[in-house]
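Course assignment 3, question 2. Fill in each field.
Student: A.L.
Task: Predict the tertiary structure for the chain below.
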Amino acid sequence: MEISTRRILILLSIIAAMGLVTLYSASYIMTYRYPYPPPNYYLVHQVVSLIIGAILMIILSVFDYKKHESYTGVYYILVIVALIAVFFSSGIVGSHRWISIGSYSVQSSEFAKIFILIYLASYVSRKNGDISTFKAGIFDPLVRLLPVYLLVFLEPDLGTTILLLILTLIVLYIAGAKLLHVLSIVGLGLLAFFGAYAAGLLHSYQAERLTSFFTYLVTGSSNYQANMAMSAINSGGVFGSGPGGAVYKFFLPVQFSDFIFAVFGEEFGLIGIILILLLYYMLIREIVHIALKVDDIFAKVYVTGFAFLIGIQILFNAGVSLGILPVTGVTLPFFSYGGSSIIALLAGLGVVINIAYTNRD
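Answer field:
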């Protein structure tokens, strides 16, 4: 497994380097928009986040992963407090998702993703893997994690809420919950979601995103954001316009985060898209390889869940630019702008590395 961890770090470095190049290209144009940040503003913040995340990854890679199980209660309290704290910070465009610290900000929900993986791994481990009943496999963990889902939803952050629920159900299913039980919750969730949509309980921008997406599915007519994203990717052709050569980034909103996949597609073309997806596939494969090699229940569930977390985020972010999903605001792992995402994922990867070395052959 030492080979797997080395490969993971190499792949991670390549992905992050490609991300920094694309991020600078996508973000330097913000210097022309009020309040006129410096051209390298987002790049510098991303590098700082990578450094902080790398330090946490190193620390957690030598911290005995088995101790996380005994600290689950403490982590739960810390996450709840962090998620509540965002409501006392200044809102940004009507949302309370960040805790401001000087010119930087912390998005609590990003760390909630890693917490949920630790919590579920600990829960399944305490059950000794026996979660085949509806109560043990679905009801109990969902009820106990309900405050986390609700607080993220109220920020409001519908995309991350859905991601957390999907991640939870996938991990529980992989860990031993019955498919019928999982599908029953999925069905109830969809009914509740569409009921809230029909009753007008969603925020206006959330409803607009969903309406635009449903319209696209039925008529093939996409909204402005999706049109620009798909046009950017189409404009890139096979080989792309080259680093810094994207034109549609001037018209895409949050082009350095939500739509960075479109900017990358325009600048590096189909070849670049295939390459980055291949790199992600290899990264996930190496993580899954570690999960398959360990016998400890906590370790197996956590590592498997972490692999799925990366995969789901890739699907959510790329799916938005490809027009197959509504805008979610989910980052492209280790690639798009998002300091909290980078730090949380690198910290989570540190636990994976410790598991790999603790259980090495």
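Instructor remarks: Residues 260-293 form the longest helix (34 residues). The radius of gyration is 20 Å.
Grade: pending
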